[in-house]
Amino acid sequence: MERINDNTPVIPLPNPGEGGPVYDGNSGNTPVIPLPNPGEGGPVYDGSTGNIPVIPLPNPGEGGPVNGGSSVRPPIWLPLSRVRFLNAAFGYTPIRIQINRVRVVTRLGYASVSSYVQAPGGYQTITVSGLDGYTYLRKTMPLPPGSLSTIAVINTPSGLDLLQISDQCCLQGNCASNFRVSNLALNSPPIDVLLKDGRVVYADVRFKETTIFKRVRPGTYQFLFAETDRSPMPSWMDIETLDSAFLGTPDLPDTIVSLNLEVEKNTNYTVFLLSSGTGERDIQTMVVTDR
Prior knowledge:
Elements: E1 81-88, E2 95-99, E3 102-108, E4 112-113, E5 117-119, E6 122-130, E7 135-143, E8 148-156, E9 159-166, E10 177-183, E11 191-195, E12 200-205, E13 214-216, E14 219-226, E15 255-263, E16 268-275, E17 283-290
């Protein structure tokens, strides 16, 4: 029998899958832990300098959610806009209107306005066509999410166009209402808007211009639309009826068109000036109310 001269004890190797740390002959004192059988065991040190354990991947079909390296965000739904359409195109037959590929107005005659419809927020394509399907106009317009607006189909020297008018307005308290004027008559001169007593509510309202809303008290008013050289009342001043002693001011201007309006409380009034012919003075009024 051969004798061992260095007196180092020899520890027998364990059976496969058994035993504890085994000395591997290195100069260090780090024990070597046997690897577990496939599919067993916990975190395994991968030899890197960091102290982060490496967790074995689960068998196919097992385990929980795995981070794919990308963040998943829920869809963002933008608020809808609300829009209506006004046919101010003098000399044209009734029209149809589409937003993108959806027909929202089936028949809209001259000097009439549709109900509000909901539309996706953002830039949308609006198509205006005749009842026979002929396309007069196709235009992309912004419909801001949550907005409220009127889109008017108007005359131009070269055909038709679309004009967007914001309808955003806060109703006034104390039972007051709001009043404004929008000039959609192609051949009209700059128009002043006066009360019967001669006060100028708005001055030089030009084609495609819409005035600001002014607060108006409930009551009966007569508005005159004319060409004058008078100065308007301050923008902050409300529209109010006057005592009868102040009415009948002489030297009223040559009126193009007039309007008698019974103003009710908590209502928005928009007076649209539309063409009734091709001349400068061929103008008619159309009143649209919103509550």
